Amino acid sequence: MKKHWKKVIASLLALALLVPTLAALDNSENQVQASATKLDVTINKVVEERGAKAPKYIFLFIGDGMSYPQVQATSYYLGTTANDGKVVAEELNFMNFPVAGSAQTFDSTSFCPDSASTATSISTGYKTYSGTINMDTTFTKEYETIAEKLKKQLGYKIGVISSVNINHATPAAFYAHQASRNNYYEIGLEMIESNFDYFAGGALKSPTGSKKDQKDLYVLAEEAGYDVIKTQKDAEKLTAKDGKAIVIAETLADSDAMSYEIDAKASEWKLADYVDKGIEVLSTNKEGFFMMVEGGKIDWACHANDAASTIQDTVALSNAVDVAIEFYNKHPKETLILVTGDHETGGLTIGFAGTNYDTYLTNIENQKISYAKYDSEYVTKYKENNTNFVQVLFDIEKNFGLVPESKASSAKASTLVLTDYEYNRLYDAYKMTMDNTGELTEEEYVLYGSYEPLTVTITHILNNKSGIDFSSYSHTGIPVPVFAIGNGAELFDGYYDNTDIYKNVADLTKVK
Questions:
Q1: How many H-runs (helices) and E-runs (strands) does the chain carry?
Q2: Which of 118, 161, 219, 500 is the most buried (most CB within 10 A)?
C-alpha cells in the first residue's frame, strides 16, 4: 500500500514539474498571463502588507547580453588582477544588494530571445516575437510601457540612456511600438513623440531614414522642443531649466555607439557621467523620475567573443550603478534600484577544456583595445596594404600580448607564447581575412561567425589562455539575475519570468 502511494505521489510530482514546462512551450498571451495569476496575487498581497508609498525614484539598469557569467567573470577578473593572480573575487557593488532574484527570458519565438522582445517583456509585461517592440504577435495591438504610464499617470520625468544607439532595441522598448526593431527612423519619430525628458548615449541610427531622404530626426527633435546636444562641453552645461534634452556622445565609435570602455579616453564621458547628468536634470521634478540605463556594448562584445571588452563594459555599467547608489544613500526610502539583463549573449563560460580546472584571468590584461578598434585601425589597413603576417604578429603582440615561440626569449614577461596549434590557427585566420571572399563554409562560420577571422581568432586564443570560452556568436537561453535595493526591493526575490519585472514595478507604483 505504501509503495502504491509512493508511486502516486511521484506521479503527481512529475506532473507538477511537467505542467510549467508545457505552459512555457505555449507562448500565447493568454497562456502566459494565466500562468502568472498566482504570482500576481502574491505580489498584491505583499504590496498591501507593506503599506508603503510608491518609490519616487526608480532606476532600471539593463546589461544587454549580461547574465551570471558576465557578472561573475568581471568579479573574478577584478579580484584576481588586484591580488597578484590569487583566487579572489571582488564583488561589484550591486552584487551586494539585499535582494537577488532570477528571471527567465524566453519569448514567443525562441528560448534564445533577442533584445527587442525581452525588453518588451520587461517594459510592458507581455511576451512577443523576437525583433518586435511593444506589439503583440499579430502586429495589431500596441503595448503601453511602464515609462509611458509613469509619465502620463503619475507625472514622473523619464530618462533613457544607452551606450549604444538611443533608437536601438532596448532603449526603444521603453517608448516605441514597432513590428520590427529595424524601423530605426520610425522608432526615432516615436522617441520624439514620447515627450520623455532626457535621452543620452550613442547617436540615432538612420536619422534621415533608410534611403536617407527623410527629414533629419535631430531637426524634428529641435522643432519638438528638445535641446539636441552633441558636445561634451554643452552636455556639462545642461541643467533642469533647459527642458527636454537629447545628449549624443561627442566621441562615437563603431556603428555610432559610445566607445567601448577599454577604448575610451580618460576625459571621455562614460555611462556613469550620463547617469549623473540625468539625475541632475530629472530629480528636480517633485513627482519623481524613472531612468532606464542600458549597458549595450556588453552584448556587442559578447557577440564578438571579446572577453576583455565584455568585462570592461560590465565594469562601466557597474560604475553607472554606483552613481545611482550614491543617490539612493541620500533618498533610501524613496528610491528603488534594479540591475538586470535582457538575455545572455555568447554562451560565456568561466572554464576552458584546454586549462582543465584552472583559470588565468590576469592574462586578459594583455588586451589593450577592443576587437572593433583593432578591426578599424589595423585590419582595414592590412587589407589596403596587403600587410605581411610578420608585421601582423608585431601588432598582435603590441595589442594582445601574444607572441610566437621564436620571439619568446626576447618578449616581455607579461606576453603569452603561442603554441604551434595556436600559431597555425592565427595564420589560417589571417589568410581568411586577407582573402576576404565573404563566403564562409559551415566549418568556417563555427570558427569565425560573421566577424573578421583574424580578430576573432586573436580574442579566442587570449580568452582560452585565460581560462574563458564562448559557445555562440548569438544569444543563449539562460536566466538573468535581478539585483534590487530600496523601496519595494523585496518583490524581486525568487525565480520568476521577466514579465514580472514590469508587474512588480506597476504594482508598486499602482499604474494601470
A1: 20, 16
A2: 118
Q: Per the domain annotation, does 2 fall within a domain?
A: no
C-alpha cell at 112: 534564445
| pLDDT block averages, 10 residues each, the chain of length 512 | 40 39 43 48 54 88 98 98 95 98 98 98 98 98 98 98 98 98 98 98 98 97 98 98 98 98 97 98 97 98 98 98 98 98 98 96 98 98 97 97 88 88 97 86 94 98 98 98 98 98 98 96
50, 141: one domain: yes
Full DSSP string of 178-215: BS-TT-HHHHHHHHHHTT-SEEEEEPPSSTTTTTT-S-
The CA distance from 479 to 103, in Å, is 5
Residues 227 and 306 in one domain: yes
Question: In the structure grid, which three cell numbers stand for residue 190, read together?
Answer: 516615436
Q: Is residue 498 part of a domain?
A: yes
Is residue 104 a part of any domain in this protein? yes
Same domain? 177 vs 222: yes
Segments forming the whole domain that contains residue 207: 36-348+474-509
What per-residue confidence (pLDDT) applies to 37?
45
pLDDT at 48: 57
Query: What is the domain count for the chain?
Result: 2
- Does 393 lie in the same domain as 247? no
DSSP code string of 94-117: GGG-SEEEEEE---SS-SS--HHH
**Other CB atoms within 10 A of residue 238 CB:** 19
CA 356, 361, 366, 372 dihedral sign is positive
- Contacts of residue 85, defined as CB under 8 A and 6 or more positions apart, other chains included, come to 360, 361, 362
Residue 15 belongs to some domain of the structure: no
User: Can you give 374-437 as a three-state secondary structure string?
Assistant: HHHHHHHHHHHHCCCHHHHHHHHHHHHCEECHHHHHHCCCCCEECCHHHHHHHHHHHHHHHHCC
